[in-house]
Amino acid sequence: MTATQGHAGVNGAGATHVGGRLRNEDAFVAEGPVFVVADGMGGHIAGAEAAAAAVAAFAAIADDGPLTPDDVARAHVHARELVAEVQRQVGGDSGTTLTGGVAVMHGGSPWWMVVNVGDSRTYVLDGGQLRQVTVDHSHVQELVDRGSITPAQALIHPDRNILTRAIGDGIHEMDAWLVPQIPGRRLVVASDGLMKEVDDATIGRVAALTGGPAETAEALVDLAVGRGAADNVTVVVADAAFVTPSGADPAPWPMWGEHDDGDTTPSTRRRGDA
Question: How confident is the model over 141-173, as pLDDT tens digits?
Fold first, then answer.
C-alpha cells in the first residue's frame, strides 16, 4: 500500500507490507507536512489498533498549517490519549512506537521536526550519506551505549525486541529534534522490519539512487520483503523544497529529555547535529 501527497513545499510517500506476519501492525501517514510511522508492539493485545491510533493523532494535524513544534507536541499528547483509550477498550496492554518528521515553522524559518518514541527510526540522507537522527529506545541500544555489545551484535541479540520506551507505557516522553531543511536532503522513516533485513549503507544507496519518494519507499519495502522479512515492513520518504536559513536558531528545540530517568536518555547520547 502506498500513499503520496505534496503540500506546502513538501513531497513524500509511504509503503507497507505485512512481511511474514499474519497481520500488519504497522501504520503510517504521509500527507500534508506529516510523515510518521508507527509499529504496534508485537505480542501485545491490539498492537495494530495502537499504531493506528497514534498515527491518527498526527494525521489530524496534516491539514492544519503552518504547523509549529507546539502543534507536534500536542499531537504526541493526543496520540498517547488515543492509545490509552485503546487499552481501556481491550482491557490489556497495548502500545506502539512512533517516529518521523513534520514540516514546521519555528522562529520564522522552516524546519523538519523529527520525533521519536521506541525503536523505529528516522534518518536523513545528504549527498548519498545516510545518518540516523533518532536514538533507539531499546535494551540493546543501552548495551551498545555502555560498550557491552557492538551495533552489529545488537541486530542479532536475543533481547533486541525489548523496548525501554513506547507510546502506551505511561512514560509520556518524546524525543524531538529540529533538523534544517536543506536542498537535496531526504528523510527516510522506517519500522524496524526494514532494519532487520537491510543495513544502513544499503538503505542509503537505495534512497539516493531510486528516484522520487514513492519509488524509494516501495523499493526499500520490496528489498526487505525479498530478503525474507519476518516482520511487517513500513517506509516513508519525504523531501522538502524549502530551505532553513543559515544561522537560524532552533532554540528552545530540540528537547533532550528534560526529565532524566536514566532510561535511554537522549541528552547524554546525541547523535550529532544534522
Answer: 666 666 766 676 666 655 566 667 788 877 778
